[in-house]
Amino acid sequence: MVVRFLFDFISPYSYVAWHRVQVIAARHGRTVEPVPVLFAGFLRAHGTKGPAEVPAKRAYVFKDAARSARLAGVSFGLPPEHPFNPLLALRVAGEPMDEEARRALITALFHAVWGGGGPGVTDPATVAAIASGVGLDGAALIAAAGGEPAKTRLRAATDAAIAAGVFGVPTMLVDGELFWGNDSLDHVERFLAGEDPA
Amino acid sequence: MVVRFLFDFISPYSYVAWHRVQVIAARHGRTVEPVPVLFAGFLRAHGTKGPAEVPAKRAYVFKDAARSARLAGVSFGLPPEHPFNPLLALRVAGEPMDEEARRALITALFHAVWGGGGPGVTDPATVAAIASGVGLDGAALIAAAGGEPAKTRLRAATDAAIAAGVFGVPTMLVDGELFWGNDSLDHVERFLAGEDPA
Fold it and tell me: Is A196 left (phi over 0), alpha (psi -120 to 50) or beta?
């Protein structure tokens, strides 16, 4: 009875959808299971470009994501740099930990990137402070994120997603059905309500 | 006071949006000005792949477009072939003609592709029959579509769109603001209503 939520901190639509999917899942008695994945791995596997690599699309995407954030009632601003290397934050978010703590950590990391005026998530000391701020052992998480298990975990999650037909973020997997993008959350909600079964 | 609607018959989301944009524009006292453009030209200009060229995305897009069509209350089915060459239909749709006739022609051509069980729009005799079916001179339109003015017109519209920052279809241009995708029509409606000015 979970909604699997595949995301990358690089993606502004993942940020907006992270807030919305929890509200939608809760309305239908579901829990969200967040799965950090490397969006760049999808692009590599499919031999295509991300929206941020097409200048015209890049400008539009930031504007549209801001609109979507306003509509969802979440604060929004551009991170200090973009694109940036999301590996550290993704590996930290994937470490073994209590699931409620993980949700708080992901929310805080996303906020540091897309909440507006935040520090981003590329600096280890910053990421450690963010983790400690939600009650986790920041220093231990940073140390673990540099180890082979954390690297293998992210690579395996990304590869498994590609094998399952995932090509973008955010992706919601619900009862074997794949939904792509913040825009698809209305479809997710109808699917959970049994209003649109296919 | 127009909403410019840039589209390609190759795109299922253009089909769904073509129906929705007219309802939305009418609600706000606007007229839709359809502009046929060659989506493949955008991909070439930006050096990227279309959704139909990424197998995982292709499967998803047809499913999601079907969902969006159901939600919009328009019939939907896959065309006899896809991808297909949309040049003839795009050139015919861009010929000089009465604007009400153009809207009827575009609706009929879209229906022949995405309405379900239709003949597609690659065969000249079929396209001529579709045009005649909405009261136009089908044979004359097919003849004109093979001429240089029709080819130049489509190329110029596509190039002008690229120069204006357009990268996909459907694109709605409203008072200088660009909106991309069927999913963006809710944003278009809020923009027209003055509820989300940026």
Answer: beta
Report the complex ipTM: 0.92
Residues of B in contact with A71 (CB under 8 A): 186-187, 190, 196
Task: Give yes or no for residue B198 having a pLDDT over 80.
Answer: no
List pLDDT tens digits, range A66-120: 999 999 999 999 999 999 999 999 999 999 999 999 999 999 999 999 999 999 9
Query: Cα separation of A22 and A7, whole Å?
Result: 13
Yes or no: say if B7 and B121 are a contact pair by the CB < 8 Å rule.
Answer: no
**Cβ of A184: how many Cβ atoms within 10 Å?**
21
**CA gap A1, A69 in Å, rounded:** 27
Q: In chain A, what's the furthest Cα-to-Cα distance?
A: 47
Nearest CA among B18, B5, B3, B31 for reference residue B161: B5
B32-71 as b/e, with b when 16 or more CB fall inside 10 Å? bebbbbbbbbbbebbebebbbebebbbebbbebbbbbbbb
By C-alpha distance, the chain B residue nearest A161 is B56
Residue type, B142: I
Give the angle subtended at the CA of A161 by the CAs of A158 and A167, to the nearest 5°: 95
> Looking at the whole model, is its pTM more than 0.90?
yes
User: Using one digit for the tens of pLDDT, what is the confidence trace for B38-71?
Assistant: 999 999 999 888 888 899 999 999 999 999 999 9
Q: If interface means Cβ-Cβ distance under 8 Å, which residues of chain A face chain B?
A: 46-49, 53-54, 56-57, 59-60, 63-64, 66-68, 70-71, 162, 165-168, 178-181, 183-184, 186-187, 190, 196, 198
Query: Do the strands B31-36 and B2-7 form a parallel or antiparallel pair, or are they unpaired?
Result: parallel
Instruction: Identify the residue whose tokens are 């940026």.
Output: B198
Contact at 8 Å (CB) between B131 and B143?
Answer: no
